[in-house]
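During the no-cost extension, the postdoctoral fellow (Dr. R.K.) reprocessed legacy sequence entries with the updated structure-token encoder. One reprocessed record is reproduced below for audit purposes.
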Amino acid sequence: MTDYFEVHARDGAARLGELRLSESRTTPALVDDVVEDAGSLWAAERDAPEGDENRLTVLPHRGFPAGTREEVKESFAVDYPDTDYPSAAVVAADAARDVGADAYILSDAHSFVGHAAAFKDSVIEARESLPADTALYLSGVATPTNAATLAYAGIDLVDAKRARVKGFEGKYLTSDAEYFLEDLDELPCACSACLGGVDEFTREDCAEHNVNALKAELATVRRRIRDGRLRDYVEGQARHDVWLTAAFREFDQQYGYLEERTPVIRDSELTAATEDSLRRVEIQRFAERVTTRYRNRFDTPLVLVPCSARKPYSESQSHGQYHDAVQFRAHQVSMTSPIGVVPQELELTYPAQHYDSVVTGRWSEDEKEFVTEVLRRYLQRNEYPRVVAHVPPEGYRDIVERVEREVEMPFEYTVEDHPTTTESLANLASTLSNEPKYRKREREHNTVKAIADYQFGDGAGDALFADADIKMTSRYPKLQVRDGDGEQLATMVPQYGVLSFTLAGARLWDASDAPTKRIEIDRFVPHGSVLAPGVVDADEEIRPGDEVVVEGPKAFAVARAEMSGPEMAESTRGVAAEVRHVDEK
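Re-encoded structure tokens follow.
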């Protein structure tokens, strides 16, 4: 149990937290000035310190370097005392255990920081062995260059020891490089230590500057976490050191670790500026759900079209032209890098309307392979009488032709030179001229069901919203779902492209065959928030941002999750979910 650390926001494994001292500190943060080390037990036996709420007290400890044999660690394991003040325990990454502290310092940090695979393995092993609501502290390793990657991996606390030492060695640190003082013609910084200019700059000044640079970098990291855009920053920042690039890519291979901690919806834009963006959790999750959960419900041909710079696609000029040619006679699916394929019903669903990518007109082989795989899996899951590929020759057509060889469907191509030329649009309209139009009611029902499939699981749309039982009110994109008696069940939220339940809808969801995400709470009626201490149990599949059912002996509610199911089940601090509607039993 922790009383002095609380997580307030999450961006993947990175957290914005609060170290609760007499003057609270927002993390990720430097903590040199608030740490009191009670000393090593290797040198002498030590009594438990008195501690106080002004400082984070490192309890008497035995640190183990990397490679220490397991039996040695077990023989010399420390029996940490219970404390009533902010405390930190020293543990090895591969032997981390809950000892009731608020923070945990990894004693073997120097052995793995700088080695990508070892860094990834050590951080994940420690993070998954320790309580979710405790802080992870790496000492003596942080620099302005690596701070963002450390936070991205899940590190909450660092110190300026390494940055300060490098300064006294005559090494000048910036967020993207390290320079020898004698190589600098001018100081590329305007902090207080650098104001005197390069001629009067001493090694003491250099140490002060390095600490200032690290503080500034951590402030940038905190801002990025608040905005939900740390990943965008790290994709560029990690390029400045080869081990950081390798570490960043190592974590990209740990989809389960990152996915559990990554929100399913965000307000922020997703910037896809590098090929590494293809491995982002949000993009992989969207592709996985579209190819395993989404089910096409139209009986019309499929029309494949290119994406547009404007989001949502339907508001762009080019997609308006495609719509005028198609005229509800085909099911429209957009092809895009880095998202993959986007059925028209999901064009608002995060991240389909929230991303921006670099447009050069040229596709890399990695992009082609990714979109080819997504389109192939999509067509293997969804049958169409024929596929009309209204795509330009550059990249798009190559992808479609690769997939055509692997699926048993007839393909037609309608673009002569560019999709929006008069001739190409006429070809598209002509090839669909004998197809019947589908009605507005069918389009709206299919949209709501498709979102339910994507949001809740395969088959959820049909399990929740049978045609005979529901009707739509309001207009797209603010569709409201009502039952046969006119009671509202859910609303489509245009900002995220997801469904938001009323209490009646939540009860329908809870009683249906659709996968339900549930939080079990203690004997209280939640108003506003469900705090983690009140959670008795929670489904492991819950992710931040998920729609959830909350139920206990005294209440039934519908809410939005603020942390993952595993985290809310084991945490003793923090908001687990924000309640929208509640019924007292």
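DSSP finds 18 helices and 29 strands in the chain. Residues 203-227 form the longest helix (25 residues). The remaining legacy entries will be reprocessed before the final report is submitted.
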